[in-house]
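User: Round two. Same drill as before: sequence, then structure, for each protein.

Assistant: Same drill it is. First protein:
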Amino acid sequence: MVTGLLWSRTQVEDFSVFDQPFYLGIAHDLVETGRFTDGFMFVPVGAGGARPPGMRFAPLYPALVAGAAELDGALRSGMDCLVATGGKTPGCTKHALSLRCLQFFELAAFFWLVWWMADAAGGVLVGWLSLLVSFGAAPLLLRSVNYLMTEMTCLVLIASAMAAAVQALRCQRITMWCATAGMALGLAALTRPAFLYLIPASAVGAVALGGWRTRRPVLAMAGAAALVIAPWILRNEIVLGRASLTYGYDSHTLVQRIAFDTMTWREYGLSYVCWLPDGNEIGRALAGVGACDRFGWDEHPNSFYVLGLRHMLYESLAASGGYEHHLGYLLRAYIFRMPLKHVLVSIPLALRGAYVAHWWGFVLLIACLAWTFRALRCSGARERSVSQNIYLVTVLPALFMLAFNAAVAVNQVRYNLMLVPAYSIAGGLTLRLLVRRFAEVQGRQLSYRHPVWRAR
């Protein structure tokens, strides 16, 4: 109820804001022609009056938008207007009640999963405390409900994968629940391609933490994920001659990230300040007006983001001979030539992406890392409690994706919403610890003042 009231007060933006035209354009072509294209933002209409098939983006979210547009006339009208105007939306409707309602229910399911995993990790009190803590991220998540982008669908799929892995730790049907987790991970990869790398990372992490005895559940997880992804890759091989998940957008994203490696060492030090919550104001106070202008994500002149999005993109595409060789060229010409600089710049970018929901994420990042270190300090899986293993299932995938996004993308906060369950559970565990310490202190004071308590 509270979340619904907050949602009713959030602002709905035009369809042209952020990455919405990417997904709406593909969905439009899917409705009109019955095939996946790269959308009007990347490929113009061909001689036959339609765009050719494409695979620049993963298919699940555009298919979801297309399905909603078949049922929602207002969404269909706004989508058609967006494409007809080339992304210029004055006068176009921005109504999409069916899809936004679906995303709101995804958010509700996500909060329930956070509560359930927290209860499994620490008991009833931790469950409710963690749910209370998670509401600190509600304003940010509700904005994602209103945008027709992948965030909410990815979030509920990743939370479902985490919950299935938690259930695998709690019951005897380990292989079945690990396969369920793999299916959810596969669907997440079909929604946002970066999650493809979480599948092998999760397999390696499970074996590293649980030992060789986890091989059967790990194989079930990886196999289920592969089965989910395989039809799309097969389609790409048959239709486009490329047996891969996507094509083109990976290097397009990477070149934007590489642009940040060109910062000077003075700017590198300043990045730790400018990427703090309210960092622009702090940077202005410390280094003067405009000190943080180069670090933002808007198209500010001379910013690193614009450098990667424009000049470096065009230059590297020309030097490599097009998107077919673009990714390999970026690795050879930039990352392999200055690997240490790339790693070092990834550190403040990771911190920037970790500050989910502003200062809420800043504070809970510290608690999250403290509880993670405590769980990992145990020398083996048998020494860790079930609760600690459950917590690691929620936090380690999120930390991996945080580091991965910092290395290959500009790592905006919305890429790292899967940190919310780990932050929430860490917050719940911390609050329970504080409550217990407070009760112990009060008990000692009461015992000192009233000796009769000692006898009891």
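Second protein:
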Amino acid sequence: MKYLITESQLNLISELERHWMDFEYEDLYNKFKHIIVPYIVDEIESYSEDSNRIVLYDSAGNPMMMFSIFSDGKTGDLYYSHKYDGFFEEMLPHPVWMTNGKYFISDAFESMLPDYKVFDVRSGRIV
């Protein structure tokens, strides 16, 4: 079964939303956003793109993020290197990264490539 929805309805259901348990940590996101997002953006040196994905690399050529593009060509899921998890969990007070990491990553990606919309963010090994 297929459903027809308007673009505004799609925007409402496609935004990366906070889980109900994370609402109380949103103020921590606002406190650290101006530091973490620019740091992540500065780590990215280059990217490669094809019809299905965009891969962002650091200065050593290691993949740091991969955006898997959906069939509409403008939205997708974002995967980031688990290197960030270890680094930021040690650097930031608990639970800043655990509750807000995907929002930092999403905002960094969307600031570099504003034509794309992130549906979901996940940590993993990127090859």
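The radius of gyration is 15 Å.

User: Perfect.
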